[in-house]
């Protein structure tokens, strides 16, 4: 029977009929696996963001190119497909698949599974992605708000 409300117990089915827990050892191992998967999700998100920023980094354009882009942004040709863009898209697909599987695991409505996944995502964010916000540097060439 599938639960439709949050419940607490060691008997849970995660994603597949073959992934069922019936005792404490199986339940604890399942929670550990879900914790590691959700932490890995945050690690992969960090890798994807870093790879995307590295692949999109371009040498600074000259003043005429900036002026032309600022005036007519629709006339600028988009960059052709590259291996870096393809790799970023593949990483996005992998991250999306992991995220949706975690969401489906939470839909087992088991309280321990829910708390474990949220804790794993939080720990993964703290370990891999929280430093990302500290690195953001904003440089304003013109402080005038009307420019």
TrEMBL record:
Presence of the UniProt keyword Ion transport in the record: yes
Membrane topology: Multi-pass membrane protein
One GO term describing the cellular component: plasma membrane
Highest taxon above the source species: Eukaryota
Record's keyword terms, sorted: Copper, Copper transport, Ion transport, Membrane, Transmembrane, Transmembrane helix, Transport
Similarity-based family: Belongs to the copper transporter (Ctr) (TC 1.A.56) family. SLC31A subfamily.
Name of the molecule in the record: Copper transport protein
Lineage: Eukaryota, Viridiplantae, Streptophyta, Embryophyta, Tracheophyta
């Amino acid at each position: 029977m599938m639960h439709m409300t949050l419940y607490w117990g060691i008997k849970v089915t995660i994603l597949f009929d073959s992934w069922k827990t019936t005792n404490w050892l199986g339940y604890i191992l399942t929670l550990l696996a879900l914790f590691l998967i959700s932490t890995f999700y945050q690690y992969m998100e960090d890798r994807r963001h870093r790879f995307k920023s590295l692949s999109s980094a371009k040498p600074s354009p000259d003043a005429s190119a900036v002026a032309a882009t600022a005036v007519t942004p629709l006339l600028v040709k988009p960059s052709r497909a590259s291996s870096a863009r393809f790799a970023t898209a593949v990483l996005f697909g992998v991250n999306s698949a992991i995220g949706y599987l975690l969401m489906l695991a939470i839909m087992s409505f088991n309280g321990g599974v829910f708390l474990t996944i949220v804790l794993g995502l939080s720990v993964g964010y703290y370990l891999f992605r929280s430093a990302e916000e500290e690195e953001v540097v904003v440089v304003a060439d013109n402080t005038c708000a009307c420019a």
